[in-house]
Specification:
mainly alpha, 83% helix
Length: 262
């Protein structure tokens, strides 16, 4: 694999995403949603702290009220849920649009290996996702100014959010490789992510057996431990292994497209 070619393709992907108003709109909407979640949780925490202080004399929110439980954990978990809807917007164009526009044949004619193409697309979408998540440290600085969070637990949650996002991006790249159009890729990615994220809870009421099967791929349930500050190596292995598996399958799909002709 050529690192330089993959890096160049990744930079091209990021520039292409923000070259249109759509990319900036996605960034603005994500930042707005994250900001509303953060402000809402801060207000709830402040109200709970005031109620506790009024009900217990001079005691403050240090007793029975921790900012990680009231702000950090739900904030990270909600952001993980929001990514379910935004990652498909980042990945649906990756290969499906190249295929629809006929530019995939041009890419195949270049001295570009399948590994370069998949890694470049994955890095480009992952960097774009990282730009969306840049709002998180900004909110962290604001939170540090008004409270004293447990930064170790917050860092564990941030790591989990990153691993979750990388898995989602890899899955989106795979489905974009298989799809005929970006709309098809976006809908398929969103549907599968919702199945992984919300499926176990929905299926439990209908079929306990199906719920147990879906619990293995329940990415939000796995991420919840990270949000609580717990780094479970089983969840790390699942998310990293799933990311590598999706990219490997995407590479095989690209090789098949090259052999058959896109």
């Amino acid at each position: 694999m050529s690192v330089a070619r993959a890096r160049a393709l990744a930079v091209r992907e990021v520039r292409g995403f923000f070259a249109s108003p759509v990319g900036w709109t996605i960034l603005a909407v994500f930042s707005l949603i994250a900001g509303l979640i953060f402000v809402g949780l801060l207000i709830r925490y402040r109200q709970a702290a005031l109620s506790l202080a009024q009900g217990s004399g001079i005691r403050s929110g240090e007793v029975g009220l921790h900012v990680n439980d009231w702000v950090v954990r739900p904030y990270l978990y909600n952001l993980g849920s929001v990514l379910l809807f935004f990652v498909p917007l980042l990945t649906m164009r990756s290969l499906a649009e190249e295929r629809r526009a006929g530019s995939l044949d041009l890419l195949f004619s270049l001295p570009l290996r399948g590994q370069d193409l998949i890694v470049g697309k994955f890095l480009g979408a992952s960097l774009t996702m990282a730009l969306l998540l840049c709002i998180v440290p900004v909110h962290g600085l604001i939170l540090a100014a008004v409270s004293a969070p447990d930064w170790g637990a917050a860092a564990a949650g941030g790591l989990g959010l990153l691993l979750l996002g990388l898995f989602m991006v890899a899955l989106g790249i795979l489905l974009s490789t298989l799809a005929q159009s970006q709309v098809e890729a976006g809908v398929a990615t969103l549907g599968l992510l919702l199945l992984f994220g919300l499926g176990p809870g929905v299926a439990e009421s209908a079929s306990p057996v199906l719920a147990r099967l879906l619990s293995f791929t329940a990415i939000l349930m796995r991420f919840e431990d990270f949000a609580r500050g717990v780094i479970d190596l089983r969840h790390v292995a699942f998310l990293l292994g799933g990311t590598v598996l999706c990219l490997a399958l995407a590479l095989r799909a690209v090789d098949l497209l090259r052999w058959r002709g896109a």
